[in-house]
Amino acid sequence: xxxxxxxxxxxxxxxxxxxxxxxxxxxxxxxxxxxxxxxxxxxxxxxxxxxxxxxxxxxxxxxxxxxxxxxxxxxxxxxxxxxxxxxxxxxxxxxxxxxxxxxxxxxxxxxxxxxxxxxxxxxxxxxxxxxxxxxxxxxxxxxxxxxxxxxxxxxxxxxxxxxxxxxxxxxxxxxxxxxxxxxxxxxxxxxxxxxxxxxxxxxxxxxxxxxxxxxxxxxxxxxxxxxxxxxxxxxxxxxxxxxxxxxxxxxxxxxxxxxxxxxxxxxxxxxxxxxxxxxxxxxxxxxxxxxxxxxxxxxxxxxxxxxxxxxxxxxxxxxxxxxxxxxxxxxxxxxxxxxxxxxxxxxxxxxxxxxxxxxxxxxxxxxxxxxxxxxxxxxxxxxxxxxxxxx
Length: 391
Ligand code: PLP
Fold this sequence. Notes:
By secondary structure, the chain is α/β, with parallel strands linked by helices. It has helices at 6-9, 15-28, 47-58, 71-85, 100-111, 126-135, 154-159, 183-193, 254-267, 273-284, 288-309, 336-347, 373-390, and strands spanning 34-35, 94-97, 117-122, 138-143, 165-171, 200-204, 230-235, 248-251, 324-325, 349-350, 352-353, 365-368. The model has no long low-confidence stretch (mean pLDDT 96).
């Protein structure tokens, strides 16, 4: 039989999609499954966003757009990012992509090759490691610890940089932990990187608008000294509840935007035109729906953390952002994967083993609270029942 090149064997996957498929199969067989596995908002985009896409279709926007994206959309993204950066940004350095993952793909492909080291968060979004391994580069995990609220430590990240390090990947607010990097740590990292000019940064800020308890998003974009090294990843998927639209944006160093656009031309040509018009309406229109969604997530976050902490053998630190809780399940006497399987197959609750996010995720489970409160309560009840039976 035909075999792809060996490098493809090193490409990993995202087990959230496998858990989702199994949950759907169980449901199709008549079982009730509460899905606390998938990481997508259970909200619809605001009506003015959907209307903008429909209008674009009626107005005849069926052709290719410029490869880097509609000029007006790139300008709107630059304006949006300027509030985060506190300085002027260049719309010509914005690339519109079909989802945040594509920025990740391009950035890691740009730096990864055998002999190079890439530092990435563990536990973290599984695609980082998958892509690093695909390129033949050496993945260097940056452990995120529960004792530190899963926040990133600049000191530890800097200590992992060696002569071969070419890229550091950061993610705040974080998947799968909900951890948030404090502004002081971002500042420390920026200072430390000044002495290490060979290192580029990929800052995954896809959850930047989902922060709780008055936390403010600290972006690496605020550091002008890093301007020529920072690749910023964000998009519409989480903020505007548009995961299925496949729409994201990135901001590139001046020297890298041209190769990034060329990678786009070699892969997707341009992003779906109607989706880009929707994205423009999302950025420039009213933001009430975003705030409303964040408030709903906050209420669920409190309920889930409280519910998890009441379970036998489980303890959960408070996540500061995104829509995930990452409870410690070491006290249940099972591994993360065993618990994930038992919960899905026996209790009808889809969750994701912490080990799906790296070896430092052993002893943890990812619970997505992007689900309605009554479902979250029933899910917690089902988990509680299974854990009590196991005792
Ligand atoms: N980055 C992180 C940390 C994520 O959790 C996700 C989605 O789950 C993405 C990027 C990808 O987002 P998109 O759906 O826009 O490709």
